[in-house]
């Protein structure tokens, strides 16, 4: 690989709901990678970006996605062009002087050829995404070492970043679960020493956004920064747009909770409660199979099966990443979030009717959860790093 690295520059790109980040990926060997330089752009920095954009109704999107007959609206075209230009600028700003080997991850359902965005909750559909990006890069004399192979899952890329990144928390374990919270929630699994994409195991486990709590609210509400803001909005009766205008996001909500503001305290309690429930669900489902304790968001989703090839494996580590990880790291040595999460999970495992006593003992040490069972990731750009790694190996 060293001889090839002289011919091109490896770039990883992570497209989120509000911004794009691009970085040059460096490596000293085939198993450990770092981000050499970083560039990012918020979509709303583009003058042509429409902050009041309304996506096409999801039922229409999904129908066209399933038939692969996309009737992209003019508003979607304009908004998509602004996003493509944001990608283009973030790449240009890296000051590239060689051909580029590029890996991309982005939110949304991918088209059949995996080179476009066919359905997306809060943005425009861009079915020809890779073609459009390749064209604008070509006009700027950015030469691709080879065409963009596919748009990957930002969640899968987070897991890849934790496996291959320097200080990645998947590196030294056989079985682990990663939950990252940003605009949405990223789920990643490593089982039997292999990274397992959630899309490949959807018959027996569901993503966080698909699982509903007892109030029919998606677990993503409690594990994403956008969702946390929404919870606080409900308790405080402050509209989301006002919270955004006043820069009241998850960290500020946590600070308000430490000052005993009731709406913020209730928000933190909800986060702790439902994250605990979700993590224990992961532990039980992997060890014993799906227990039918939860409804799924999509009523047409096929019933999850109880049997799977990873049964009887115990998770060695829970990794909390992205903005959610920063929030929980911030909460260490405070009475909120970090300690309550540990206490809740300990109590739930103790009371579990699914896990045998020997399995329960695996998680405990001196009357509490094992030290290091839950860890916060310091890889802020794990999805970007993972995208770059996929370019090398695809």
Structure description:
The protein is globular, with a radius of gyration of 21 Å. The strands form four sheets. Strands 3-2-1-4-7 form a five-stranded mixed β-sheet. It has a five-stranded mixed β-sheet with strand order 10-9-8-11-14. A two-stranded antiparallel ribbon has the order 5-6. The chain is 39% helix and 17% strand. It has helices at 2-5, 58-67, 74-92, 129-139, 154-164, 220-223, 225-236, 240-245, 250-258, 262-288, 322-330, 338-351, 357-363, 382-393, and strands spanning 9-15, 19-27, 33-42, 100-106, 109-110, 117-119, 151-152, 176-181, 185-191, 194-196, 317-321, 364-365, 368-369, 374-376. Helix 10 packs across helix 12. The chain has two domains: 2-155 and 383-393, 2-Layer Sandwich (Nucleotidyltransferase, domain 5), CATH 3.30.420.40; 169-378, ATPase, nucleotide binding domain (Nucleotidyltransferase, domain 5, 2-Layer Sandwich), CATH 3.30.420.40. By secondary structure, the chain is an alpha/beta fold.
CATH architecture of the largest domain: 2-Layer Sandwich
Q: What spatial order of strands do you see in the largest sheet?
A: 3-2-1-4-7
Global mean pLDDT: 93
Helix content estimate: 25-40%
Task: Please give the CATH class of the largest domain.
Answer: Alpha Beta
The CATH superfamily of the largest domain bears the name ATPase, nucleotide binding domain
Kindly name the structural category. Answer: alpha/beta
Distance between the termini: 13 Å
Give me the CATH fold name of the largest domain. Answer: Nucleotidyltransferase, domain 5
Task: Kindly state the number of beta strands.
Answer: 14
Q: Ranges with pLDDT <50 over ≥5 residues?
A: none
What's the helix-strand series?
Answer: HEEEHHEEEHEHEEEHHHHHEHHHEEEH
- Over the alpha carbons, how many angstroms does the gyration radius reach? 21 Å
Main pleated-sheet profile: 5 strands, mixed
Question: Any idea how many domains?
Answer: 2
Beta-sheet strand percentage?
Answer: 15-25%
**Inertia-based shape:** globular
Q: Count of DSSP helices?
A: 14
């Amino acid at each position: 690989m060293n001889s090839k690295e002289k011919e091109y520059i490896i770039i990883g790109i992570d497209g989120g709901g509000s911004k794009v980040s691009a970085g040059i990926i460096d490596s000293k060997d085939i198993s450990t990678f770092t981000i050499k330089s970083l560039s990012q752009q918020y979509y709303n920095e583009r003058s042509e970006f429409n902050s009041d954009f309304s996506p096409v109704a999801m039922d229409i999107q999904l129908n066209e996605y399933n038939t692969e007959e996309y009737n992209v609206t003019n508003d979607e075209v304009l908004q998509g062009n602004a996003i493509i230009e944001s990608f283009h600028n973030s790449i240009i700003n890296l000051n590239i002087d060689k051909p580029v080997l590029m890996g991309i991850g982005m939110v949304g359902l991918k088209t059949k050829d995996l080179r476009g965005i066919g359905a997306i909750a809060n943005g425009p559909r861009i079915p020809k995404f890779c073609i459009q990006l390749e064209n604008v890069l070509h006009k700027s004399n950015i030469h691709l070492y080879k065409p963009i192979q596919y748009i990957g899952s930002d969640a899968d890329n987070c897991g890849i970043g934790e496996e291959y990144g320097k200080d990645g928390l998947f590196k030294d374990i056989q079985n682990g679960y990663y939950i990252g919270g940003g605009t949405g929630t990223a789920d990643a699994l490593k089982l039997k020493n292999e990274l397992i994409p959630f899309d490949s195991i959807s018959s027996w486990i569901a993503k966080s956004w698909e699982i509903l709590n007892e109030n029919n609210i998606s677990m993503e509400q409690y594990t994403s920064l956008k969702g946390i803001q929404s919870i606080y909005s409900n308790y405080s009766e402050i509209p989301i747009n006002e919270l955004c205008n006043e820069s009241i996001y998850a960290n500020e909500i946590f600070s308000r909770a430490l000052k005993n503001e009731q709406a913020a305290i209730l928000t933190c309690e909800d986060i702790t409660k439902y994250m605990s429930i979700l993590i224990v669900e992961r532990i039980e489902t992997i060890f014993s199979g799906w227990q039918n304790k939860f409804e799924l968001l999509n009523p047409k989703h096929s019933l999850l099966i109880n049997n799977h090839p990873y049964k009887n494996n115990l998770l060695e580590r829970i990794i909390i990443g992205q903005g959610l990880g920063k929030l929980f790291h911030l909460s260490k040595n405070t009475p909120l979030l970090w300690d309550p999460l540990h206490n809740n999970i300990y109590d739930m495992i103790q009371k579990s009717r699914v896990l045998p006593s020997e399995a329960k003992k695996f998680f405990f040490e001196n009357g509490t959860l094992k030290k290091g069972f839950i860890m916060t990731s310091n890889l802020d750009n794990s999805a970007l790093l993972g995208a770059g790694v996929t370019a090398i190996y695809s």
